[in-house]
Amino acid sequence: MPTIRELVGAIAQRDGVEAVIVLGRDGLLIDGRTGPTLDAEHLAAHVPALITAAEELAVHAGRGPLVTSVLEYERGLAVVCALSADAVLLVLVHPSANVGPLLFDLRRHRGNIASLV
Fold it and tell me: What CATH number has the domain spanning 4-116?
């Protein structure tokens, strides 16, 4: 079975991926790989607020728990994937990247990924 570090490395090697961060729901970094201009711990610390807001929206919209959120920004995408009750995956992607295969793989392998954390 692969390790969490191997998983992070495999996702980071995909075309257009600029950062991969696995964090606890408390915002603490578990593992990550980023480019030289990004701070993994700083990014991880901001994710819980996104999750809280998304889950509050889900309650009022009757959508159930957050599974995956894709946020589009001027300079790229942020994919936030709830792996378990304790862990979250953040992937930052370049705006020109094709995120379809990444989203498909995250959905298909979510259980396996969660078992690594």
Answer: 3.30.450.30
